[in-house]
Fold:
Amino acid sequence: MVRRTKADALATKAELLDAAERLFSAQGVANTSMMQVAEAAGVTRGAIYHHFENKLDLIDSMMERVRLPFDQMIEQTSQRLVDNPLALLRARLLNIVQLLDRDPHTQSVLTILFHKCEYVDDTLPIHFRHLRARNTCIDECTLVLQQAIERGQLPASANPAQIVVSMVAMIDGIIYNWLLDPEYFNIIEAAEHALDTFIAGLQQRTSA
Amino acid sequence: MVRRTKADALATKAELLDAAERLFSAQGVANTSMMQVAEAAGVTRGAIYHHFENKLDLIDSMMERVRLPFDQMIEQTSQRLVDNPLALLRARLLNIVQLLDRDPHTQSVLTILFHKCEYVDDTLPIHFRHLRARNTCIDECTLVLQQAIERGQLPASANPAQIVVSMVAMIDGIIYNWLLDPEYFNIIEAAEHALDTFIAGLQQRTSA
DNA sequence: ATATAATCATGCATGCATGTATGTAAAGTG
DNA sequence: CACTTTACATACATGCATGCATGATTATAT
Structure:
């Protein structure tokens, strides 16, 4: 087989990305060779170098396909909670783990980012995507928290930056541990319990 | 130089471990060759293979030197808080981040475990050490929480397993993010704030 | 219908990393 | 003072993985 049709080409490209996602999330990035990816996709290495410049470009394209949950959080959350900032914040953070719980692609990609990819200079563009998504998430949460303070849901003495660090760390930690062993606990229940308890603590400190 | 004295041999072995710790935490494990480690320690690769079987043995020996904070937590915490389980739990979890904040070796090793080491079959023995430490930490915290319930600090309806997942995830997330950028926030303050707020939430739910 | 360009396969060159085998000179041992 | 072992250095063999260059064949455009 040579020169398949344009639609076929797109199909093989997608299969290459699928294979990369599977292998990287299963064996690790550095531990997976281009040859393994090609074989898993049913082609040779030549096909990869036709569609992608190199390994990093392959990874980058693979990431490009999925919207990281931190990104998706912002647009997805309903607007009708705007008069209840604290509930909005809770809903948005929960949306992150809900997306992760339901979408296998997100699971694979986040597994790669958290556990199957060394954080080194070579792979910096990969992690930039991760960091950028998290930073916008942090900024967004900070804004919502300030609204919560303005509306009296939290005391004026509350430190939004400090609170956001705690809440994002909580979600990150839950995701980190759940990806290590998804059978160990239910991520939705864990996130709800953690968020609700933490928010309850914030509100108690309001009245204190 | 050939055949230095026995004391010198121990010194070079220590320098090899130091070099490995520095390079692995800076460049990643898979991205660092035995030659780089040897050069950084001022010897050749032959020296490494004399002291260690292979790369994995080198990493394992490097980990063996430090006690992971989750391990250290158990023995270190004072016993006089035994009549206040909740305070004991808080102290123990805080001890983890305090050790991390103060000890550079712990910082390097945890950086490797969290960010500079792919979680793959080849490096499984490495992560086993991490997981084992965390599991004993979880078990210990669960016990303390049950005591807190018995003493009425928490309602009988509280789910210790659920609470532990949240608290450990919180600490994990804080460590994870702090290691990414230690300048971004103060880890002690963040951990205290997160723990206190969460515990306050637990207690509020007690009275509810 | 012809020229062009796309889609991949194949082969090669190169470099790097690992592991091992061997050499060597001094330290340890009696 | 033998002579054995230790602590490394040096050298080699091997295997991969990458990147590129080229080839083959057909879709596609004009």
Q: What stands out?
A: The interface with chain A takes residues 27-31, 115-122, 131, 159, 161-163, 165-166, 168-174, 176-177, 180, 185, 189-190, 193-194, 196-205 of chain B (CB under 8 Å). Residues 197 and 205 of chain B are 12 Å apart (CA to CA).
